[in-house]
Amino acid sequence: MTFIPVSRTNASRIGQVDFKNLEFGLHISDHMLVAEFSNGMWQDPKIVPYGQMQFFPAMMALHYGQSVFEGMKAFRMDNGDVSVFRPGTHFERFNRSLERMCMPTVPPSMFMDGLFELIKTDQDWVSGVPGSSLYLRPFSFASEPRLKIKVAEKYNFIILTSPAGPYHSKPYRLKVETEYTRTVEGGTGFAKCAGNYGSSYYPMQLALKEGYDQVLWTDGKEHRYIDEVGMMNVMFMVNGVLTTPKLNTAILSGVTRDSVLTLANDLGVKVEERRISVAEIGEGIRSGHVTEAFGTGTAAVVAPVSTINIEGTDLHIPEPGDGSFQNRVKEKLERIRLGREPDKYSWNHIIKI
Ligand SMILES: *Cc1c(COP(=O)(O)O)cnc(C)c1O
Questions:
Q1: Are 110 and 39 in contact (CB under 8 A)?
Q2: What is the pLDDT of residues 204-233, one digit of tens each?
Q3: Of 124, 254, 248, which is closest to residue 183 (Cα–Cα)?
Q4: Is CATH 3.30.470.10 the right assignment for the domain spanning 14-164?
Q5: How far is the CA of 297 from the centre of ligand 1 (A)?
């Protein structure tokens, strides 16, 4: 366990937060973890009050995009403990993303101990309001001020946390994207790097204007096969088989995706990871063989899809009932996280407070 110095704020903002009415990502908790990479190594991390920081406008992340993030959640369990969901899996993915962007990986001691110490410091921000959580955002970016295009030599690692309420969205209307591309195989789709999101905004805005909530991305080569939603992975129930695109370098390997596939086995549902064509899903919805479609991601956990637009035609998927796979798996995941069901895969990291 690394010792991480904590400098506490004397002006907590927690009183300004209505924990029963949270807008995602709006409130940042009182403290943050900060660390710098310089002289070829990570310098000692520390926890300080959240606030403005100073950087040079020439910092390279702004110009050349070396910037990577993670997103996970901490929960207040029924017995009052705080648990973090699969931090080790998020840590490994973070380092895979960093490697893809030629950024220095972070040691587990800094990521994990820093994260747990930060959550301890701001434990009051993990409210016990049903369905709520503390969203955890570790990220790193190139902070070296220089205009030359090259791999930076100076970076910052920061962890912010933000209280999140239950995610009640109406079922998603997705537009299958066949003109624009989020990423291609060999690109950066599997990395949680900032550039993937900036480049998705334009096609997403077009979809929004046309009355859809999100884009369903297809492979960048032929636009024939389904990739993912761009902040969520996507799954379909096809003839009673839970079917999801097989991972490749264009698809982000979601921790929720992996958790849902694992729990499907426990629920006795067969799983297939394979290439899924847009045509197959179109025909399956029309014939009734596709009975469920949903997204998976840390923010929403499981988000139902009601409509998929394929080449200008809206296809409708029935609303998921209580007995649907997506509602059963969502419930099971929630029960594991809150300690109501045995955590047989050791997904919960309990923070001793
Ligand atoms: C974060 C993310 C997901 C979901 O991953 P989780 O680990 O389940 O939160 C899916 N697709 C993209 C592009 C993402 O950035």
A1: no
A2: 999 999 999 999 999 999 999 999 998 999
A3: 248
A4: yes
A5: 5
Identity of residue 314: D
Ligand 1: distance of its center to the CA of 253 in Å? 7
Where residue 120 falls (left for φ over 0; alpha for ψ -120 to 50; beta otherwise) is: alpha
Nearest CA to ligand 1 atom 10: 232
Q: Which of 24, 91, 233, 249 to mutate to test the pocket of ligand 1 (most atoms within 8 A of CB)?
A: 233
Mutate to test the pocket of ligand 1, among 70, 226, 252, 258 (most ligand atoms within 8 A of CB): 252
Where do the domains of the chain lie? 14-164, 172-337
User: Mind listing the pLDDT tens digit for each residue in 286-337?
Assistant: 999 999 999 999 998 999 999 999 999 999 999 999 999 999 999 999 999 9
Fold category of 172-337 in CATH? D-amino Acid Aminotransferase; Chain A, domain 2 (3.20.10)
- The predicted model scores a pTM of 0.97
Cα(130)–Cα(166) distance, integer angstroms: 8
